[in-house]
Write a structure and sequence with these properties.
This protein has helices at about 10-15, 65-85, and strands at about 25-30, 40-45, 90-105, 110-125, 125-135, 140-150. With about 160 residues, the protein is α+β, with helices and mostly antiparallel strands. The radius of gyration is 15 Å and the shape is globular.
Length: about 160
């Protein structure tokens, strides 16, 4: 796959096991598998999101933990695309650690959250990623994410 080809929702379904209401990546607009591996993806945030019913009624705000989860899912898509390119067997990746998490502003209905994730390193089945979320090129959140592969579990099944 050419890194200039967008990865649409049907392809994301093949790469990730997540489904509604927890699939938080709508599209990948760009990725690079050569060093340093990176990905750019987004989520369109609508008032129809189930979490807005309780977070917060009358003042809907996307929970920060879901922004972190969305960044981790973007990292997962990058990991799966890289494994496919290397012809490595498919594995399921779990988020095992979050460091340096920072939140700069709220995400509200109508926002398109862009996720930029860079792979820092991969070793012994674990990947370290630096992730940033923005809305209209303004920082929303950032974190370092550590993900671990579980070889006996298959994505998208």
């Amino acid at each position: 796959m050419n890194s200039n080809d967008p990865v649409d929702i049907e392809r994301i379904f093949e790469l990730l096991p997540h489904r509604y209401p927890f699939l938080l990546v709508d599209r990948v607009v760009d990725f690079q598998l050569e060093a340093p591996p990176r990905i750019r993806a987004y989520k369109n945030v609508t008032i129809n999101e189930p979490f807005f019913q309780g977070h917060f009624p009358g003042h809907p705000v996307m929970p920060g933990v879901l922004i972190l989860e969305a960044m981790a899912q973007a990292a997962g898509v990058l990991a799966h695309l890289a494994r496919e390119a290397d012809k490595s067997p498919s594995q399921l990746f779990y988020l095992v650690k979050i460091d340096k998490a920072r939140f700069n502003r709220t995400v509200v209905p109508g926002d398109r959250v862009m996720f930029d994730v860079d792979q820092k390193r991969i070793m012994r089945g674990m990947g370290l990623y630096v992730a940033r979320a923005t809305v209209d090129d303004k920082p929303v959140a950032s974190a370092e994410l550590l993900c671990a592969a579980r070889p006996d579990a298959q994505p998208g099944a």
